[in-house]
Amino acid sequence: MPLLFIIIPLIELYFILVVGEAIGALWTVILVILTAVVGVQLLRIQGMSTLAKAQRNMAQGRIPAMEMMEGIALAVAGVLLITPGFITDSIGFLCLIPASRQAIIRYLMTKATVHRGFSAKPGGFQSDQYQQKPQSESDVKPPKIGKTLEGEYRRED
Question: What is the pTM of this model?
Answer without folding.
Answer: 0.66
